[in-house]
Amino acid sequence: MVEKIIEESIKIENSSIRYAYILDNVLSKTSGNVLEIGAGFGTNTAIFCEKAIKYNKKVYVIDPFEEGWKDMPESYRYPYEEFVKSTDKYGSTMQLIKKSSQDIKSIKEYGKLEFAFVDGLQSVGAVLHDLKLVEGASIICVDDYSRRGEVKDDVDAFVRATEYKLIETPDENREVYLCK
């Protein structure tokens, strides 16, 4: 079921619409929640929250924001104010874990995950750590696969070591989907 949903979704060029399509088709039929690693300005978080509200789910967001952004490009600095503006209306639907995913050893307390969005630190080993953290989610979406060697290398290593299947989006898109 999940693989078919993803394969249908990659025909959609706009990634925001693609995420909404996937969440509509997965969250309506399952009991799990959504987890996002690396929220930035909250654009995707808002999409995830809208769908979580629709299906009575929770969205967990892991991002250190300014406290952990010393390793991020200058263009990404100080997103927290924008994140709050994008997400403040979602209240108890969303829980922010304001720390680096690299400092988190387990996410079991957040329950079953249906959809995990990984867009955190993109250094050697960091993406692999995040993938291992969300392992078990029905769908894992990893951003920037085609843009950064570290991301691609870690994703490929994770897929080789697990039962996840890699589904790439068309050339212009940067994310990939992993599903069982």
Please state how the strands of the largest beta sheet are arranged side by side.
3-2-1-4-5-7-6
What is the CATH topology?
Rossmann fold
Q: Please, what is the average pLDDT?
A: 90
Span of the ends, CA to CA: 10 Å
- Counting DSSP H or I runs of 4 or more residues, the number of helices is 6
Structural class, from secondary structure content?
Answer: alpha/beta
Instruction: Estimate the global geometry from the Cα principal axes.
Output: globular
- The tally of strands reads 7
CATH architecture type = 3-Layer(aba) Sandwich
CATH level-4 homologous superfamily = Vaccinia Virus protein VP39
Q: Helical percent range?
A: 25-40%
Determine and state the CATH class: Alpha Beta
Number of domains: 1
Low-pLDDT residue spans: none
Please provide the ordered H/E string of secondary-structure elements: HHEHEHEEHEHEE
Radius of gyration: 15 Å
* Main sheet characteristics: 7 strands, mixed
Strand residue percentage: 15-25%
